[in-house]
Amino acid sequence: MNIIIIYASMHHGNTKKIAEAIHSQLGGRLINFTEAKNEDIVNAELIGFGSGIYMAKFHTALLGFIKSLPFMENKKCFIFSTAGIRKNIFLNKGNKLAKKILENKGFEVVGEFDCLAYDTYGPLKLIGGINKGRPNEKDLEDARKFAKSIILDRVKRK
Ligand SMILES: Cc1cc2nc3c(=O)[nH]c(=O)nc-3n(C[C@H](O)[C@H](O)[C@H](O)COP(=O)(O)O)c2cc1C
């Protein structure tokens, strides 16, 4: 299966760690979104899109990349993110906007993963940040389990 995992990880490399854990189970290509090309998506059978949550959403340029793609038919994808604050608290809508944009592009979102991660953005720096040490080993194990469930339950059996 042609799999590609694309991530945006600008703050502490948190999302990259989750992307690597998922990649360890699924294989395929793991790339930074700055290197992603339309052809990569068009040719892939399963695409992972991951990002840190910045100002309550996926990285703007990654969302822009998705919006620039041609309409996809029957293209399966999964999404994952890391954030300082739990989703649905304050303005953090987690994966929600990315999911909507992907579905509008014709993607079928077959799975979602998110976890809390180290955050020193803005005033949080003054207190040494929050969620120190995360993603931790349990988060990475959860990400690996998520990856296995994607490939076993939601893609191959369809
Ligand atoms: C510019 C900026 C904006 C952020 N905005 C949010 C936010 O709106 N909600 C949130 O929960 N975390 C926010 N964070 C924290 C990040 O989502 C968190 O640290 C995430 O794990 C970063 O992933 P990365 O290390 O892969 O970049 C923000 C961080 C930065 C640098």
Detailed description of the structure:
This protein is of the alpha/beta class and 158 residues long. Helix content is 35%, strand content 23%. It has a single domain (3-155), classed as 3-Layer(aba) Sandwich (Rossmann fold). The structure holds flavin mononucleotide. Flavin mononucleotide binds next to helix 1 and strand 4. The site of flavin mononucleotide has 22 residues, from helix 1 and strand 4.
Distance between the termini: 14 Å
Q: What compounds are bound to the protein?
A: flavin mononucleotide
Helix share bin? 25-40%
Structural class: alpha/beta
CATH topology: Rossmann fold
The CATH architecture assignment turns out to be: 3-Layer(aba) Sandwich
Strand order of the largest sheet: 2-1-3-4-5
Taken as a percent bin, the fraction of beta residues is 15-25%
User: What is the fourth-level CATH superfamily?
Assistant: Flavodoxin domain
Count all strands and give the number: 5
Gyration radius, rounded = 15 Å
Work out the helix count.
5
Name of the top-level CATH class: Alpha Beta
Number of domains: 1
Instruction: Label the overall shape.
Output: globular
Secondary-structure element order, as H and E?
EHEHEHEHEH
| Biggest sheet overview | 5 strands, parallel
pLDDT < 50 stretches: none
Give the averaged pLDDT, no decimals. 92
